[in-house]
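Running co-folding for zinc ion.
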Amino acid sequence: MSFPAVRMRRLRRTQALRDMLDQNTLNPSHLIYPIFVEENISQSVSISSLPGYVRLPLAKVAAEGKAALAQGCKSVFLFGIPAKKDEEGVSSYAKDGIVQNAIREIKNVCGAELVIIGDVCLCEYMSHGHCGIVRDNEVLNDPTLELLGKIAVSYAEAGVDVVAPSAMMDGQVAAVREALDEAGYDQIPIMAYSAKYASSFYGPFREAAGSSPKFGDRKNYQMNQGNQREALREIELDIAEGADMIMVKPALAYLDIIALAKANFNIPIVAYNVSGEYSMVKAAAENAWIDEKSVVREILVGMKRAGADLIVTYHAKDIKSWLN
Ligand SMILES: [Zn+2]
């Protein structure tokens, strides 16, 4: 049968029909709310390339957890900026490190209502800004694994709910799983940054977290933008190493990777709607070139439609205003 017996517009006639037949709806529970917390500041510091976002002092971080809950979000994602950086990233796994303290502050106030996810990486803690130990201008894989395990355990000791290794070192999921299990944290899930591309969309985050590499780039550990098969292998390996959820990052230019992950693996898929994607929308909206709320909805529902179960997004901050 075809036209005129078939008329696709019949099911689009009213808002109620359209709502009834909605395949992908946005739910604040599925959005992960990022938080930047900085050591040794007493006032929030705005981030010029990430409009509406700040680096928070420790004293304000629990209130931000509450703010996430008020938006309907169930989870926050913590990124720390330490007072001191060095060549070994020692403050990344310190008992009283900035993220460890922030986890305790938020847990105290929000309890089990809010899932706290800790980003496990070294770039914010290293004076050179790379995601691992550097010797002779080379980022070393295996020695970095031990540090990632230490960070994850220190977060677990502080009360984190989920750890998210993001350094793109080979074997990082297995190393983190093993370290957690040995320390008695076999119930802490791993959200693995599996398909993390070497992207130009990370610029505003690097301003936010002070994590730009001081030499070279990240192309020998993050993925080549042109590749799909490599993403599937990375995801497959991370699942074999014990990942409980996998991530594709960035999201907007990589929707095909999200769709491929969905088609190939039975595991929750996280899309990271990264800083540059957010800032482009903000900049255009500030110029009144686009309608921010409807564009944000369209972008996020597109990620859902591609196959994302969860989305890390800076837009989570004001989700209530654009959901209605
Ligand atoms: Zn990193």
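Result summary
The domain at 27-323 is CATH 3.20.20.70 (TIM Barrel).
The chain has a mean pLDDT of 96.
Job closed.
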